[in-house]
Amino acid sequence: MIELHDNKVPFFIQQHVYDFILNSTFRIKGWEDRDDLEKYDLHSRWTEEDLKNSKLWCYIGELYSFDKFDKCIVNLTKPGDHYYTHTHGEDTTVVLYYANLEWKDGWAGETLFYDDQRNCKQAYDYTPGRLLKFDGKEPHSIRPQSFIGPQYRFTVSTFFKG
What we know:
The chain has one domain (2-81, 89-101, 127-137, 144-161): Jelly Rolls (Sandwich), CATH 2.60.120. It contains 3 helices and 10 strands. The chain has helices at residues 11-22, 48-54, 57-61, and strands at residues 2-5, 27-29, 41-46, 69-77, 92-98, 111-114, 120-124, 131-135, 140-142, 153-161. The strands form 2 sheets. It has a 7-stranded antiparallel β-sheet with strand order 1-8-5-10-4-3-2. Strands 7-6-9 form a 3-stranded antiparallel β-sheet, with no helix packed on it.
């Protein structure tokens, strides 16, 4: 199950979300589901209150009930970063938001989904303001932006359990 939602978040809200992200505290730390100590990612953990203050909360809430809110992570990728194919487990739904205000053809940054043999079955372009809802058990990966793109690519991943 993968649902694409474009044109739901008005541009003035996108601007507010982007500014909120730029003022967030980012950490350099590996993920709890990986044991390779050399792999670090820049991310910010948001509370449900942060989502409300960012003004993104109501748009995500239209796609999934916050009664089952688990966590929210803002990911920051850079050109040359490397990401692994992964899942988020059973009974997890993810709502992903593409936060950059501008994105041009050729900058890459897609979200890739894979079949059981790890062949890419679907790629979703990085489109500003896009919301992508998917089942957390779907194998997927980030494709970092190209070196001709912006220095930072931001996504907001909101996770729901049950």
